[in-house]
């Protein structure tokens, strides 16, 4: 089994979901809930119910609210995706129920920052699997597939409803801290998702592009593509060399290019994700 095949193995997905759920649950149980914060998503709605009625726990409310969404998901989304998502729902609930540690962070602002980062890392690890964190993720994916409504819009609308209700019953300081938590959760989640997928797309314009392409294969172990170009000033045909590399290889590539041609044009662009060929395998839900 190659490294790329791991992303489709059951055991690897269960490891990601389990570890991510535990981290996410810790950020909620040990920091967010003791401070009275309102997390985003369906868990946040379950937490809101818990604050209002002081019965059951946010974890139990989360799984109760998730049951109808899971049923809908099985009808409209792939069975494999929903199997992992259902497992993530159970894992998060159990982890939340069994965690009893209080992180002991007294300052409200520090608590919001820490909880947001921890929850974002946990949620991001889960989303690296073939499933999701459950809850509003299911509805957001269905709306995207059926009506082309962006995932971000669905999350924004749902969280706006949660915080709108919260503003009527809780102190503004708590709600603002909760918003900071949610924003940091989103930022940390995006970082985790892109941490191992980001690449650099490099365009090289040089009279020695053939030699540079050979050196890239020999020294960096990656291939490249020639794009036919035409110089606007000299009106002469010229090959544009395009290659995709990681951050570590960038300086080595720069050295290869300018050692051979000091007058080369070296253009670097960031990419969020590169899939296919020898890179990440396309995730199919």
List the main descriptive attributes of the protein structure presented here:
alpha+beta, 4 strands, Alpha-Beta Plaits, 285 residues, 2 domains, 10 helices, 4-stranded antiparallel β-sheet
Radius of gyration, in angstroms, nearest whole number = 24 Å
Mean pLDDT: 86
Q: Which regions are unreliable across 5 or more consecutive residues at pLDDT < 50?
A: none
Helix content: 55-70%
Total E-strand runs: 4
The termini sit apart by 20 Å
What's the main sheet like?
4 strands, antiparallel
Please state the oligomeric state of the protein chains shown: single chain
Describe this structure in words.
The protein has 285 residues and is of the alpha+beta class. The protein folds into two domains: 3-195, no CATH class; 199-271, Alpha-Beta Plaits (2-Layer Sandwich). It has ten helices and four strands. Strand 2 and strand 3 form a beta hairpin. It has helices spanning 10-32, 41-53, 58-76, 79-98, 108-127, 136-147, 151-169, 172-195, 209-220, 247-260; strands at 199-205, 225-230, 237-245, 265-271. The mean pLDDT is 86.
Secondary-structure topology with pairs:
Blueprint: H1 10-32, H2 41-53, H3 58-76, H4 79-98, H5 108-127, H6 136-147, H7 151-169, H8 172-195, E1 199-205, H9 209-220, E2 225-230, E3 237-245, H10 247-260, E4 265-271
Antiparallel strand pairs: 1-3, 1-4, 2-3
